[in-house]
Amino acid sequence: MSQTFRDPQSGGSLIVAWQAKARSILIVGGGAVAAGRVFNALEADANVTVVAPKLCPELEYRAQAQQITWRNRTFEDSDLDGSDMVLTAISDGHESRRIADTCKQRRIPVNAADINDLCDFWFMSTHRDHSVQIAVSTNSKAPRLANRIRRQIASSLPRGTGQAVEQIGRLRKRIREADPRPENSKRRMTWLTQLCDYWPIEQLAKLDSDNIDSLLDAYVQDHDPQSVRIHSASESSGMPSPVLPSRTLTPDTPNTGEPNRGRLILVGAGVGDPELLTVRAHRALKEADIVLADKLIPEAVLDIIDCEIYTARKFPGAASEAQDDLYRRGLEELAKGKCVVRLKQGDPFVYGRGGEEVLFFRSHGYESEMVPGLSSAINGPGLCGIPVTHRGVADQVLVISGANRNGDLPVVPQFMATRTLVILMAVKRLEQIVGLLAEHGFPADLPVAIVERAGCSDQRTVRGSLHTIVDVVARAGHNPPGLIVAGYSVNVLSDAAIQDRYLDPSTLGLHSSE
């Protein structure tokens, strides 16, 4: 046989999109993991039954809203009657194994959380945007990494991808109604293929009823879809980058004209997006001979630097040593007459130890030039559609750090309804922070958001209430760095925020308080 074919690569899963509408899915367990399974099943329009003697707040909400059927007791074998799928999410491994064995005997597909050898199938890390669903599986080898891969894929999608699919679906239906003949199926497919392959997705997302009528007319008249002109086609989403003149930051810097004397520039890298750097910061990075960078500076910012980059290797318990190492390298390069840029995340003077560095280098005879950056404390929430102040809702904002020098919890004032509270460097201590806020009168239904990697391509916002946010983050995971925003301004623009390309709509619906 002369023709050859590719060999299958074993070890994968058969990935399908199971039509679960009106199917009966039984979920054993009432905690946060079970709540995640319930949410996925409800999005697939399944009929969901939960068996558990106690429910977490989200499942209580869904039971009260009659979204699920709740059997308030432990599992019984008779619960399997009529079930099309069973999902266990309980801590009792022995009982999970017994349930799974019983399901296999009755030929019911089963998934047991965290017990891979019992599972007929895995749950994948999914992104949902209207009818678009993207799933990533590592075949249960690295679930956390699957989340990261999924976020990377989702962030690379053109804005409006889900809406574009919805509009093409409408057009496809109209074309089939206008030309239902089976012998024309190839013509319909070819015409729609040309439209989907050659039109920008952003343009397809903007189609309205009039545009769809125009495209339908073009199909009926056998015109090329590329010949159709719609009113939004001329809109452009791109913005040119500013042209940066090649000149010094200031003509009268303290070290100008002195031989073998370096120049020190303290630069704020902002929130992560290189397009949000200030013009002065961009110019400083291009003029630098060496850049001393914080560990958390995003790759996208580092990519625009042409010179050597020396990164601070800060780890828990070794921050002082890392800072001393940066000081040492900075003094060495300054003594050689180099232009040294000290690049710090956000704004150097907002919990960035910028003042300490100014004083240190001043004590060694070097004055720092200051280039502020956008602080994530204010601009991070803003990028996610959360205004920290809003007329009639929040007239003040308080920014505090959750990582005090001695590891103590921050000092929190009593709750004020018109104040937005932003807590930096605190997500790892979220449960303690929530307890602290509750002690100071913050209500259980107060909106809370976790803003992750503000300004980066994989930026994400996870929303909940003071009562639910710990469980929500436990389910959604956390991708540092992040900050906490608490206050009624969190949800002021939530409907509009869901449309933002940086937000993951699958996490915005996890809370139970809105």
Number of DSSP E strands? 17
The percentage helix is: 25-40%
Look at the helices and sheets and give the structural class: alpha/beta
Discrete helix count: 17
**Residue fraction in strands:** 15-25%
Question: Kindly state the mean pLDDT as a whole number?
Answer: 86
Rg, Å, rounded: 28 Å
Q: How would you characterize the largest beta sheet? A: 5 strands, parallel
Please write out the topology.
Elements: E1 24-28, H1 32-43, E2 47-51, H2 57-64, E3 69-71, E4 85-88, H3 93-105, E5 110-112, E6 125-129, E7 132-136, H4 143-156, H5 161-178, H6 185-198, H7 201-205, H8 209-220, E8 263-268, H9 279-287, E9 290-293, H10 299-302, E10 308-311, H11 319-335, E11 339-344, H12 354-363, E12 368-371, H13 376-383, E13 396-401, E14 419-424, H14 430-439, E15 447-452, E16 460-465, H15 469-476, E17 482-486, H16 494-497, H17 505-508
Parallel strand pairs: 1-2, 1-4, 2-3, 4-5, 8-11, 8-12, 9-10, 9-11, 13-14
Antiparallel strand pairs: 6-7, 14-17, 15-16, 15-17
Short description:
The protein has 514 residues and is an alpha/beta fold. It has helices at 32-43, 57-64, 93-105, 143-156, 161-178, 185-198, 201-205, 209-220, 279-287, 299-302, 319-335, 354-363, 376-383, 430-439, 469-476, 494-497, 505-508; strands at 24-28, 47-51, 69-71, 85-88, 110-112, 125-129, 132-136, 263-268, 290-293, 308-311, 339-344, 368-371, 396-401, 419-424, 447-452, 460-465, 482-486. Strands 3-2-1-4-5 form a five-stranded parallel beta sheet, with helices on both faces.
